[in-house]
Amino acid sequence: MRVLHIGKYYPPVPGGMEYFLRDLLVALSKKGVQAYALVHHHKTGIPSSLENLEGVRILRAEILGHFGFAPLSVKFPKFLLEWIRYEKPDLLHLHLPNPSALWALILPLAKDIPWVIHWHSDVIPSPRTLKILYPPYSILEKCLLRYASLIIATSPDYLHSSPVLKNFPSKCVIVPLGIDTKRIIDSTSLRTNWAERMWKSGSFRLLSVGRLTYYKGFDLLIKAMTKLPKDIMLHIVGSGNLEGYLKALTKEMGVDDRVIFDGYLPDEYLSALFHSCDCFVIGSIDRTEAFGIVLMEAMWHGKPIIASNIEGSGLRWIMREARCGLLFEPGDIRDCAEKILWIKNHPEKALEFGKSGRHHLEKNLLISHVAEKIIGLYEALK
Fold first, then answer.
1. Structural domain of 172
2. Nearest by Cα to 237 from 190, 178, 298, 289
3. Do 220 and 210 fall into the same domain?
4. CA distance 90 to 191
5. What is the pTM of this model?
6. Which residues, 6 or more positions from 148, have their beta carbon under 8 angstroms from its beta carbon?
7. Quick one: 247 and 357 in the same domain?
């Protein structure tokens, strides 16, 4: 079986959607599916390239720039047409949101092949740019969903809360995301020693990871630190457009000695920080945080988790199913701080949360489990 995946980006470009796509393609290829992907380069000036990564062919299309949050590529439809014409895939697997997937509506050859749409998240028109751009995009988005043979939602909570997916209930199935734990690098003694030096001696260690953007709620975590004892430290791993603002906020709040920005870290260093922290915390504020791949990385490391209780998000669903930590009310700084303090003061319960999360991950959320379910869906469409 040959399946062409249409994605936005692909690792080493960081991101939950990107990491999942990589893990899924590798897992599918190991199970006998010829899976390959058409994606974009993430920066201008990089020529289109065909790569073979871990046995999977990845074609990255050159981009002219970005419009809103979307990459613009005049070569994307040409590559899509060529790959359909010459590779003759049995299925198209479209990962949304991704405006370039809309080219499938225009190409007759694409419309002759069954489509699977992987609905990673709704487009939440929060920033001003998205409020302007989303209405016309939403019309074409619904056309994509009408043509699709099958729509994969990543959690029952997200499916039931999505104003878009509610129009296509008979096409929707639930398959949670998963991770390949083999790519989570075990901490060497060298990296572990580095991580230990990053924390103050005797501190309670909080870790948060993600793109420094509006919906991740890092400003809430920084403000929560002002309500916590001075022996609590927070490391924030990631980069993004709000980095300058968030660093200035830590100084304004007087917590710049306890909140450390690490920027982007290679996997072995990130793994070492996960290994050395006491608790993982996610402060996201809306359903743009649809699932949380990084949540599963924390579960793999056996860490208790404190997360935002976002209605309709898969984040809350995983936390409830895995019993791996505590939820706080979205945007509630005091509630967040109280949950952190509770975990600090109840180490035995924190250990139970960590073990429960690890067990749930190994039983339900490994990429091998997810790939098997998706192959079953593919075969039903042949």
1. 2-180+366-381
2. 298
3. yes
4. 44
5. 0.91
6. 94, 115, 116, 117, 168, 171
7. yes
